[in-house]
Specification:
The chain is built from 13 helices and 32 strands. It is of the alpha/beta class and 611 residues long.
């Protein structure tokens, strides 16, 4: 550690003495091929301060770093946007000595092409290199498994003066579970770990029963009486299972404002609220935020939007909160992991790291935390100002009919985390909870705002009820009558129609000299009641209800029949079905028919009797 510090200080002092040189990769293929670099100059294995490497492969090509490369402090490494860098050797970015160290980091040592689901074997050399990359930035690391090479994390972390919360990965495979547990115990007996974490989110996934999990915890506690033993899971699991709280030595809880669809401005409010609630059920045991974080890319989750700015903002906000509250934590995670982008998390799963994948560069904005920046309180609500308003709820945005967007609203006069919203739409003569039967409630943001995915684009009536967060009558579908009886406020909106109806025209039949029958079928009302329907016709084509004759055949959707009268014999007519709602009049396809010819004049025949 002292040697690294000395080297970094020397680099700081001599930085200005080095000549600035830029090396630009413009070809495709191996790093060591001189033809891939401008003017044939391949950068030295240790890039000195003041120099720059720019990776800008030609077209869709890629740069393959097939050798060890070190970027010293004061040098610059730039990977141009949308360009590819593949590392088959190694890339080490010599760090600046941070002014602030994290309490802990989630550590998962997988390179591109490696995947725990495929039981990839991780070499000790790779583990040692990746631990070295983070050793100056954190005091602890947390691992997630004890097989396939991961059992070497503890000993290598201790060599770098890091403490280790070592995990045994548990799932529904009992044979694998026992191997994980045995290895975890061996690591503990060898003095290679400081906390034993028996399983991660096991109960959330439903891989084991609670009694099975507690059995594993008990087994490890008996084998390692001098090491704290716990399990890690989402905070809701601990809130709802006091016997699990009793079974562990310390609470390792996961709190993710992102997965709870909180906006970046409200994320730390949730952290603080949850932590306060956990203190009431912790039985006096220490609470560690074992996972939290924010993705820098990928799909949004409600108002939670992945981006480099939001990821670095949450990093700063959370660590500022943890410093002020003196809370221990493990930030998730050290490096981006490509394999996680193929899981149910989607693309965002591959972008939770503080550093780029394969131990790449520190992401934009993350350095502020390591530079010792701290922001003031951003997690306490102005309770008096909020409660000064009368409890109310209102929609602030309702998408037009036919547009696939979320509805948004605002609640006033209540503490946001003590209440939730139930949204309903009226369709097919009934009320339906949104966003789904299984998820009939929407949580509030810290400012009282909410967002709900309604999915149905043609329903005109929406309602929202403000309910206590404790309201949970059981079952997936909450009848609207039950919500109404327990709500402290309600709002309703009628969406104006913006789409005309969809309908078809029937072929004419029963055609005579002066009459015919036709009609239509209205398959969709366009989101508003059909107030008039029928057929219109003329002899020139493209009939409409304004300029031509028409029938009036009731209202509403479905089938209807029309009697057309007053026609001329032996004449070609053009007919269309029509339907009118508040958005306008829609027409079906045009049909053509010709009336029957007139009968010839009647002739009197005189009978002649021939005798």
């Amino acid at each position: 550690m002292k040697k690294l510090l000395f080297i970094s200080l020397i680099l700081l002092i001599v930085n200005s003495a080095f000549t600035q040189v830029t090396y630009t990769f413009t070809g495709t293929g191996n790093w060591t091929d001189t033809a891939n670099w401008e003017n044939g100059f391949v950068p030295p294995g240790v890039l000195l301060p003041g120099s720059t490497i720019i990776i800008n492969p030609a077209g869709n090509g890629e740069c393959v770093l097939n050798k060890p490369q070190t970027i010293t402090y004061g040098a610059t490494f730039i990977l141009q946007p949308d360009k590819k860098l593949k590392i088959t050797g190694s890339l080490f970015m010599a760090p600046v000595i941070p002014l602030y160290k994290l309490h802990g980091l989630g550590f998962s040592p997988y390179y591109d092409g490696q995947n725990p689901g495929f039981q990839s074997q991780i070499s000790e050399q790779q583990i040692a290199y990746l631990i070295q990359r983070v050793a100056l930035y954190t005091n602890w690391i947390r691992s997630y498994g004890s097989t396939h090479g991961l059992e070497k994390i503890g000993v290598n972390a201790h060599r770098q003066d890091l403490k280790v919360a070592a995990g045994a990965w548990l799932d529904s495979n009992m044979a694998n579970n026992q191997t994980e547990i045995a290895n975890l115990i061996s690591m503990g007996l060898a003095g290679e770990i400081d906390v034993a974490v028996v399983g991660s989110e096991v109960l959330l996934r439903g891989d084991l029963t609670k009694s099975q999990l507690i059995g594993y915890i008990t087994q490890v506690k008996a084998a390692l009486p001098n090491i704290p033993v716990t399990t890690a899971d989402i905070y809701q699991t601990f809130l709802s299972h006091p016997d699990l709280v009793s079974a562990v030595d310390v609470l390792y809880v996961h709190i993710y404002p992102f997965w709870e669809r909180k906006s970046i401005n409200c994320a730390t409010y949730l952290i603080d609220k949850v932590y306060t609630n956990l203190q009431t059920i912790s039985q006096g045991k220490e609470i560690v935020v074992a996972e939290t974080g924010w993705p820098s890319e990928g799909e949004s989750e409600g108002l939670a939007v992945p981006s480099p700015v939001n990821a670095s903002t949450f990093f700063l906000h959370f660590t500022s909160w943890a410093k002020t509250k003196q809370v221990k934590y493990f930030y998730f995670e050290a490096f981006d992991e490509t394999w996680k982008g193929t899981t149910r998390e989607g693309l965002r799963g591959a972008h939770w790291g503080i550093w780029e994948k394969n131990a790449g560069v520190l992401k934009p904005g993350m350095d502020s935390v390591f530079n010792g920046v701290t922001i003031s309180d951003n997690w306490i609500l102005d309770t008096a100002a909020i409660l000064a308003d009368t409890p109310s709820i209102a929609f602030t945005f309702v998408p037009p009919l036919g547009v696939q967007q979320d509805v948004q609203g605002i609640v006033k006069g209540v503490l946001p985390f003590d209440y939730k919203v139930a949204v309903y739409i009226y369709a097919n003569c009934g009320w339906y909870p949104k966003p789904t039967y299984a998820e009939p409630f929407t949580l509030l943001q810290c400012d009282g705002s909410f967002i709900c995915h309604i999915n149905d684009i043609y329903e005109t009536i929406l309602r929202a009820y403000l309910l206590p967060v404790s309201f949970n009558p059981g079952g997936n579908s909450i009848p609207i009558e039950v919500a109404e009886q327990n709500a402290i406020a309600m709002t309703e909106v009628l969406r104006p129609a913006t789409f005309v109806a969809n309908l078809i025209t029937y072929d004419a039949n029963n055609i005579t000299q002066t009459t015919a029958e036709s009609g239509g079928n209205i398959t969709c009302d366009g989101g508003a009641a059909i107030t008039a329907r029928g057929v219109c016709w003329n002899t020139t084509g493209d009939p409409n209800i304004t300029a031509d004759l028409k029938t009036s055949d009731g209202s509403g959707i479905g089938f209807f029949y029309s009697n057309i009268t007053g026609l001329n014999p032996n004449t070609t007519y053009y007919v269309k079905a029509y339907a009118t709602n508040s958005a306008g009049t829609a027409y079906g396809s045009e049909k053509i028919f010709t009336t029957a010819s007139a009968l010839p004049p009647h002739r009197h025949i005189k009978k002649v009797l021939i005798e």
